[in-house]
Specification:
Blueprint (H helix, E strand, L loop, with lengths): L7 H18 L3 H7 L4 H9 L19 H13 L7 H7 L1 H6 L3 H13 L4 E4 L15 E5 L2 E12 L6 E7 L9 E7 L5 E6 L10 E12 L11 H37 L1 E2 L2 E2 L4 H29 L5 H26 L9 H9 L9 H10 L4
Parallel strand pairs: 1-4
Antiparallel strand pairs: 2-3, 3-7, 4-5, 6-7, 8-9
Length: 381
């Protein structure tokens, strides 16, 4: 079925992104997987060709374009080459609403130019050792002290955690108020008492720096608070989660499409019992099922992208996209690995990496169980 999501300017941008990845990323990504981190220089090079901050106003170096289709192009091209170490999508898809929509003029002038250029790498810190999907359970505190907050606590599983210069951090400014006691503060590299723990070793996304963060009496200026008062953080987070979850769904479908294409090509060439693997009915049936489900998912996600552009994407719609597409990504990776036989278990074949990288998708951004709870609550039971 013909896809009609993109216009000519998006496809022109796709060629720019594709060429950048082929030149600056693909030859080096295997080494980054061994190193566990992507060099900061790559971020700056991406900034030079306009890969960051589409919605940032032109006066701060951005394009001033609010069109998630550009974000989608980057997501799809990154997944097409398996460059899962790049934290670009979190920088673009998750962080932009905080830094563009929730900052005052002084904060915009201070942070946005570096955000667009790739000189300031960003992260969001919500998850704690004892609080994952349950944001109200966070224990990191920020006590007001004149023109500063004193921040104490820790975060874990933070994407871009080692490289990040700006970390939007969820803290409790009033622990007695539950969700209404959460505030978002921007912590900056170099603040005394702000340290990073391990670059965590994961089963997949090996080149992505995922870290622990520690706060020991960190003095954070009130000027680094997002919003004009304490207690707005939970609602700021909730407002931005649909876009984050759609971003995950977009990457999930793109990853599923990629591994499926690779597997079809493998089945064309591989022989078993004296004939081509694709000649077996089981192979054709498995691929037929996967191709159908992936295409159906693609069209739902495309519709969600246009709904987001129109400011009509609901939390329920985003939750549906996130859980369904990430489960599908895992299913496709698993079935495709099976069709590769023993070779699918070898890391030299892309399907093995795709299998490992897929597993986290149903966990972060809110677990798929939470997604189903969000959908279930919409029934009014």
């Amino acid at each position: 079925m013909r896809r009609d999501l993109f216009e000519e300017e998006h496809e022109m941008f796709r060629e720019t992104v594709r060429e950048f990845l082929a030149r600056e990323v693909v030859p080096h990504h295997p080494q980054w997987e061994k190193d566990g981190i992507v060099p900061r220089e790559v971020w700056k090079k991406a900034g030079e060709i306009g890969m960051f901050g589409f919605s940032v106003p032109e006066e701060y170096g951005g394009s001033g374009i609010t069109d998630f289709r550009y974000n989608t192009v980057i997501l799809e091209e990154i997944m097409r080459v398996g460059a899962t170490g790049l934290g670009f999508t979190l920088h673009n898809d998750v962080m932009a609403p905080y830094l563009v929509d929730m900052t005052n003029d002084e904060q915009k002038a201070r942070w946005l130019p570096g955000y667009v250029s790739g000189e300031l790498i960003t992260a969001v810190a919500m998850t704690e050792p004892a609080a994952g999907s349950d944001l109200q359970g966070i224990r990191t505190t920020a006590i007001r002290d004149g023109d500063h907050y004193i921040v104490n606590g820790s975060k874990t599983f933070i994407t871009n955690g080692i490289n990040a210069d700006l970390v939007v951090t969820a803290v409790k400014t009033d622990p007695s108020q539950g969700a209404r006691g959460i505030t978002l503060l921007v912590l900056e590299r170099g603040m005394e008492g702000f340290t990073r723990g391990r670059n965590l070793e994961k089963i997949g996304l090996k080149a992505q720096d995922t870290a622990e963060l520690f706060f020991d009496n960190v003095r954070v200026p009130v000027a680094n608070r997002l919003g004009d008062a304490d207690g707005q953080g939970f609602f700021q987070l909730m407002a931005n989660l649909p876009q984050e979850r759609l971003s995950i769904a977009v990457s999930a479908v793109a990853a599923a499409e990629t591994v499926l294409e690779q597997t079809i090509e493998y089945c064309r060439k591989r022989e078993a019992f004296g004939r081509n693997l694709g000649r077996f009915q089981n192979t054709r049936f498995v691929l037929a099922e996967l191709a159908t489900e992936v295409e159906i998912a693609r069209h739902y996600v495309d519709r969600c992208i246009m709904a987001l552009n129109a400011k009509e994407l609901s939390p329920v719609d985003a939750a549906k996209a996130k859980w369904w597409c990430t489960e599908l990504q895992n299913k496709v990776a698993d079935r495709c690995l099976q069709l590769h036989g023993g070779y699918g278990y070898m890391m030299e074949y892309p399907v093995a990496k795709a299998f490992l990288d897929a597993r986290i998708q149903s966990i972060y951004g809110g677990t798929n169980e939470i997604m189903k709870e969000i959908i279930g609550r919409s029934f009014g039971f």
